[in-house]
Structure prediction request, 117 residues.
Amino acid sequence: QVQLVESGGGFVQGGGSLRLSCATSGSIFGFSAMGWYRQAPGKERELVARITSGGTTNTADSVKGRFTISRDIAKNTVYLQMNSLKPEDTAVYYCNADAYFSSTQYWGQGTQVTVSS
Prediction:
């Protein structure tokens, strides 16, 4: 069974930084892509950043230049480095993984990020 375990959320002042981690129960190459989504209260879940198995990344315009997705293959872990955080970044952040050759997606339990003004 696929498990995605997130860590690293918390409370930070505006302008601060946090790093989120998502550890998988198996190899990250078992997925076609992994990414981070977020959902703020009353809003839809949105893609923040994504990295394919080949290492190609894409980042939402709202966080471009501030957030960076990366991975440690040996640790089967994907990271989201978040700098220059803003109150509007406050949300629950979810790790996501896409299965190969199907529409199946896997989700972590979510981690809360709160940014004060």
Observations:
- The chain is about 0% helix and 50% strand.
- The radius of gyration is 13 Å.
- The first strand starts at residue 4 and ends at 7.
- The chain has a mean pLDDT of 96.
